[in-house]
Each structure stands twice: as structure tokens, then as C-alpha cells.
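hi support,

uploading two proteins for the ticket. first:
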Amino acid sequence: MALRLCSRVLRDSSLVSRLLLGTTRQESATWFLTAGNAVCSRGRRNGFIFTPACFITSDAFLNRLMKGKAVEADGSSYRLPASVLPDNAEQLSLLMRHPDQPENAKVLKVALIGSPNAGKSTLSNQLLGRKVFAVSKKVHTTRSRAVGVLTEEDTQIILLDTPGLTTVSKAKRHNLEKALLEDPWNTVKEADIVVVLVDVSDRWMCGRIDFEVLKCLAQHTDIPAILVLNKVDLLKTKHRLLDITAELTCGVVNGRKLQVRTVIKPPEAEKSSKRQPEPSPDEDTAGLEGDADPSSALSREQLKALRSQQGWAHFKDVFMLSSVDKEDVDTLKNYFMVAAKPGSWQYHSEVLTDQTPEQICTNTIREKLLEYLPQEVPYSITQSIEFWGDGENGELDISVKLYVMKDNHMRMLIGAGGQMVSRMAKEAGEDLSRVFLRDVRLKLTAKLKV
């Protein structure tokens, strides 16, 4: 079975099997990646144009994709996602409501795993069409597993958004909950497909699959896994994409060997290809001594073998996209829709997430703390919801107290004239208004924890 490189023009019956890689005028490199009979085609005379959301897949799956939802319509079947109910009892009642099973119901459980800050929550939000998972540029924004539910026509995609896989030592450093060590491992067990996200714009992390991710994959070889190269819009040297793909897949996709070669390689590409990212001190020692409890299923010999690997040779398919680009993400969504299997829905079609409104509120506030406060400060701040109820004019009034460990942290949180905490309250309230589809008035107060 041949592998094929496909562009994101999935609704076009004349779908082209080519990957167009962007280079500058000085980087007129010609790249080829072959597996079976698939070959990347030549681009414009000044180089290549990168078409995001390209992916490597099999001919058989490509045929299914072209016959499926991806070619049916131009978005006419899309409906606005359900809102999250701002009342805890009503949200719980919705979650407990019996699923409205359609004829020929299909379902797919998708576990998103990867290193912290790879873009898992951003991708989940884009797939859902609504921001329900907190995101920030700092690591460990997601503190526990949460479910997102995407329902269209007869198909339900259950997104299992997990914290970034980490080690005990790193969890202690960032004052993280035990759930961050356990949730990703437990989530993968129940998934139909595992999506491994890699931030290709991170020069230190894009050259190898994170060791914790490799351990997770090695323990669940029976579950199909796909590789998603994320943040391709931030990658300055697009010619690196194929090298990264070859490295992270060990040169094999869906059991077929990839061949990557260049006709003309720019000098800077030669230099960058020789520089392999060195593992950090934490990475170099973590795992071999059974740092995280879930890894105990692997023997010391297996762990040592994994340590020597850069990638994983058992990915079914590979995507290259930007999780902030809707058109890119629609390509991946179509893939999930076609991959869904006959089965009973687990949630009512109006459910968007299994999070309570209070969880969404505290996660949104944490996002702002991570965004605006430096270094370790936001990780030491805890929250307590003091009031949650209807306001005089029909808005939702929320009052949250923030507990701070140190005086200097308090000064940074409050800001000059209270401007910092006011700004965070305003932005978090606006985000919550979009989630609850209701005006939200959020009040944040701070107290020194003694």
C-alpha cells in the first residue's frame, strides 16, 4: 500500500498529491519525499510555497476521505457548538442526559498527548469551534484531563485533552498536582486513536519525540497513533519539515519507508542538519529510574532502548499544520470524522465539554495569571470562588479570591494602582462571556496566604 502526500484541498475531487515547501529566493532547494509511489512535486521558480495541513497518509485512507464528509459540502452541515451552561446543576444535568443516538451513529475517542506547551488545548479549541480549554505560552496550563465533544450529523468525536507529559521532578518544581503525572497515561488507555503533537518551532524539542511520550506510546502499541507537526507557521526554515518528519518517524510511516533527499540544499540547511538538540539535564536522567509510576510497566532494558530513539516508527499518518488556522484544523477534523467507527454516542449532542462552569472559570483565570505574571509566580497562586450568582441586570456575577504566598508576588499581582489584577479580571470575564453566552462580571481580590 503506497503512502501519499496530500494538500489540504480536501473538497476538490482533483486532490493533488504534493507537499509544497516554502523557501526564500536564496533557498531554492528542491525536496522530495517518497514512500511507495508518492513524490513531492516541483513548485514555483523562486522556490516552493508551503501549503499548511499537508499530511502523509495511505492511498486506501485517502480514498475513504474523498468519499466521506470532506467532499460532501462547503460547510453547510456546520452548526455553532453548544454553550457551556453557567449553572453547575444545569451543566451536570446536561452531562447526565441520555445521548440522542442517531441512526448509524459513529464515534471516535481521540487522546491528544505531547510535551507541555505543544499546542494541545489550542488545537482542541479550534476543533470545537469555541474556547473552552485554557491556553498560554507557559507550560502546564492544563492541570487535569478534560473532555471536549464535537458532534456533527451522525458522528461524535470525543477529544481527551491532557496535561503535558512530565516527570516527578518537574512536577515538584512547578508545584503541580498529582493529576499531571497520572491523567495522560490513564487517558491513552481509553482512546481509539492517539495524536502526538510536536512544536516544530521549538528548535530544542522538534528533533526528537519527548521521552515521556515515547514511554506512553511504547506501553500502548495496540492503539493507532498519528503525528501532528504543529506551529508550522512559526517555522522560519520550511525546508526542515521533511527532515523533522523523517527524524520523528524513524523514516517509517504506516509501515512504509520514507525517502528524503535534496537536489540543491542551501548552506544553512547543511549546518542546521548537523546540529542535533541535546537533551536537557532533566531529560537525560529522568525515566531510567522509574521517575513516574506509570512507566513501571516498561523494563529497564526497554527504557534504555527508548532513550536511544529519536522518533517512533509506528505512526499511521503524519499531519503538518498550524493549530491557530481554522482551515488547517478542518483538515484534521475531516480525518477524524472519516476515521470514526460505528458505535454509541457517549454524550448528548448539546454537550461541548465535561468541565463544570467553576472549572472553566478557574482555568481561565489561571491562563491570565500565567500570561501576565513572571516565572514561578502564577504556579504558587491558588483560587477560591467566593460568589457565583445572578446580578441585578441579568449578568452573571462571579467573585474569586486569589491566595498569594509572598509579599513581592502580591505586588506583582496587584500592579500599579491595581491595574494588573483589574486587567486580568476584565479579560477573563470577556472570555467567560463567550463560553457561557452571557454577560459576566468577574471580580478578583488577592490575599496573602499565611
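and the second one:
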Amino acid sequence: MATDTISACTGSSLLQPISEIINLPLDQVNFVVCQICALLMACCFRLYLHPSKTSPLARHVVATLLGVYFALFCFGWYALHFLVQSGIAYGIMILAGVEHMHRYCLVFALAYLSFCQITRVYVFDYGMYSADFTGPMMVITQKITSMAFEIHDGMARKEDQLTQSQKLLAIRRMPSLLEYFSYNCNFMGILAGPTCSYNDYIAFIEGKPYRHRDQGSNGKPQGKTSLNDPSPNKEVIRKLATCFISLLVFLSVCKVFPVERNIDDGFIATTPFYAQVVYLYLSMLTTRPKYYFVWTLADAINNAAGFGFNGYDGEGLPRWDLISNLRITNIELATSFKMFLDNWNIQTAHWLKRVCYERCPYNPTAATFLLSAMWHGAYPGYYLTFLTGIVVTLAARAVRHNVRPCFLGSPTHKLVYDVITWASTQIAICYTVVPFVLLSVGPSLKFYRSWYFSGHIGCVLLAIALPVKPRHLRLKEQQLGLQPSSTHSQKHKAT
């Protein structure tokens, strides 16, 4: 009886023998196998259900049914939460009206996600099951709220009230139920995302990737993207190679530098502080390849289906980074906190920016970090990480605005600044995200105590000593600075 319960909670038990042979949890085996199957299905989807050969209706139906099947295979009946959350949110969109539905959908989707996360962590016993069905729900929550805000922008706000990006993403008609579920639960992104805009997804399904991103002022498609359907094969192979290397590094190195050693009493007592700093960097560095593996594989699946094409670069080569979730080189060589965040979990950063940061009238930085913490889950370590992230962000911004200009006088000074800020950024990131890995309050505070809360204290002092003008004042100054050149340009044209 107990075995049946565990099987029901972790999805299909079909691969149990493989799980036992390779000594990996069944939920992880199910996930990887489903993603490999999704990759194969994506290739078939592009070849046999190409927009030139079949209708958008058929593509929507196939993408949705495959997505639901993969979800049931991985998570069993817990996958029904995906449909329930999406279905209720769609009802809110229909019944609440375009004026207020974006707020109601945001509150509902986050509340439903939080309820599932809290019950998974604090109500059910960890030994009962290991599959985290709330992972896909996090991506679906992003899609539900993004769509609600984009419908509100497209149907309830005037054109002159929208920013350029909001105009690009605004949805001008209410999606059908099939389009909605296809967007939320398609097989390419149901297990690991990434989030994408509704307009981009519909353009992909209908075979019109240039429809809203590559139109001139006359409304006609322009540029190469409207003429070609480039093959994603090279890009898919490159990303699969990255996946293989990331997985290899993670399996071979991660256990050598366990994060928990940072709070080991013997390690703290006998290890010089500089060695603790180096070990902290190495232990956190080795946790990243698993994210590189999961997100790059998800990106490759979408590309294999033909989704993710983002025009051509300066050399005329196709770009397949429309929905990419990370840029590994920029992460590892980041010379600022912002640069790291801009290249890590990119689609989530876009979601936070579009839903919260651009729209919050007061303290958008703090509000964005708080929303991010709520979205990530119920573990206290998440909140400690994002609260720490607020002060680190403010300090990094203050240093960049006040100190960086002093080092731009010569290439040598700029190089010195880059080296110092690279080291500082990497240590600041590691210091910030330790609670994210440790999860609990006790171990997290023990780590910070072993560092005498030096990161928090230093960041607060920097933020106070190096003030930065509020964002609305900086934007106003920029606008005023552009006015003379704009006026001059108009006079020049007139003459």
C-alpha cells in the first residue's frame, strides 16, 4: 500500500529499474527521460507539423496533449494542479474584465502557487515523495500573470500610456481556451520552461515569427527574418554539448565541494578566512552546472521545435536566443551584481521587470526582490537571500555610479577596476545565495555569523556613504539631456 502511494506521488514507476541501476531518484530519471523524449518530439513537431504543412489548431492540440502527458508521467495526479491553476485564472480573466483582471490573476496565481509550495514543504513528509511538482507551476504562474498584464495593456490602456516593450507584447484580443492552455502547458516548456511572451508563442505556432517583432512603420514585414526559416540544428547540437559538459562537471565536482562545509564548526575554526572565501566561491560555483544543464536543455528543446529564433546578428548568422534563460560566459565573468542577475534566469528577470519593477510606484527594487522570494517558495532561506540581495544591489549600484567613472581614464585603470569588481561580484553573489542553498534559517544565520555579517554591514555603509539619485530623477535628467539634441536635430532637418 505504501509503495502504491509513493508511486502515485512521484508519477510513473515504469522507469524504476533504471532508477535502481544508476542509483538516481525516480523523479529525476522521469524528468530527464521526458526531456529527452520532448527533444525528439520537438524535432518531429518541426518536421511533420510545420506551419506550412498543418494548421495552427493541430499544432496547438498536439503541443498541449504531449505537455499534459509528460506532466502526468513525471508528477502523477499532482499535475492536475497545472490545469486547475490555469483554468481558474482563465475564468478570472473572462469574468473580471480587462480593467482589473491583471491584479486578480497576480494575487490568485501567487496564492495558489504559495499554497502548493507550503503544503509540499510543511504538511507532507519529505520521505513520502521527492518530485517537486511546484517547479513547473512556477513557470505557469509567470505565464498566467504575464498574459494577464499583456491583455490589460492591449485592451484596457491607451497606446500612448505604454512603453515600447509593452506595445510589442500587448495582446489585442482575448485568447481562446485552447490557445491559452497550449501556451501554458505545451510539451516544450511544461517541465522546465522557460517563460516566453504569448505573442512570441502564437507567432511560432502560426509560423509568423516576424509578425510583431519585425514589422516596419507601414505594418509590413521587413528584414531577413520574414524571408527565411533557418535551421536550428547547429544551435541545438551546440546547446546539447553544453548540457553534456555541465552535467559531467556537476556529477564529478559537486560532491567535492559541499556547500554545507561552509558552516562546519571544524572548518570554521581551523581554516583561515581567505581560505574560507576561496572555498565559498568554489562550493557555490559547483552548484551552477545543474541549472546550466536544465535550462540549456529546455532551450534546446524549444529550438528543435523551431521556437526561439530571434533574427540575425551583425554577421548574418541566425540567433536562437529569444527565450534563452542564461548566458554562461557573462555569468562567470560578471563584473557587477546587475550583470550577473541580467544573465542568470533571464526570462524570470524579464517577468519580474515587466510585472513588478516597471509598474511599482514605490521602492521597485525592494518590491521586485520580495515578489521573487514569494515566487521561489516557502523556504526561509529564499527570503534571507532576497533580503540580502536588496542591500547588495543598492551597494553595487552606489559603487557603480560613484566609483566606476574614476577608473575610465585609461585602459589599465579600467582593467584594474574590472578585476576588482569581478572578484567582488563573485564573492557577493556567493555570500547572498548561501541561504538559497541551505534553505533553513539556523544554518543560514550560522554562516552569516561566521562572517560577522560583514557583507550586510559593508553594503549598508556603502549605500549610505555613496548615495544614488532616485530612478525617476535620473530618468528625468536623461530626458532633459536629450531634449537639446532632439531640438537641434529638428532645426537641422528644417534648414
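thanks. also noticed: Residues 179 and 269 are 59 Å apart (CA to CA).
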